[in-house]
Amino acid sequence: MIAIMQPYLFPYLGYFQLITASDTFVLFDDVNYIKKGYINRNNILLNGSAYRFTVPVQNISQNKKINEHYFSDDTDNLLKTFNMAYAKAPYYMDIYPIIERALKGTERKVSSVCFNAINDILDYLGIEKNIVFSSNIDYDRCASATDKLIGITKALESNYYINASGGQNLYDYDYFKSKNITLAFIQMDDIEYTQNGKNAEFIPNLSILDVLMWSSPKNVLELLNKYTLITSGHNYGK
User: Fold this and answer.
1) What's the total number of domains in the chain?
2) CA distances from 95 to 109, 146, 170, 204 (A)
3) pLDDT over 70 percentage in the chain
């Protein structure tokens, strides 16, 4: 089972559900950078509300590949924001070093920082996954967007491709089937966890950092399994 996504830094829980549902997770790093996407930004909980954070990237250009971009070193204020948001969270001492390594480490290439942060989080949770870069895979880079996904899946000797649920209007089951690939979509269940140590209104779809700060590793693993795989009109719970 193959899943393919652009590299995101500290994405939401659903991204990690896609990782855990797959056998091999491919970071699509050799496609053009998308400005104002989620590669370098997401939302955290700050003072009871969703707050959009952005990790600065040097010289962003939609004419360059993701793996040709580098994060800025100017992240001190952002670290202060994370500290302000989560210093009192029960798992702050475990998770803050992961944030600090990503924002202040010597590696600044966007794709590599995302790769390292994802693996740091998986290691913390005790999850072993095969994560690879698309730039290291032999596939037709001139193909259509759909055929690139199929090409990568076949290059990895798989016949099963999982996509985020948002792709249901983009990709066709029958077309994948004609290429001997089973197409499935992952749909996150309705999920809640205790935020801010209080019974305040739950703010959904925040960065994985929020989940990790407020939830034990055991509870995070339980949340990661709360999804449904949808394939050709059939739903398979996890």
Assistant:
1) 1
2) 21, 36, 35, 19
3) 96
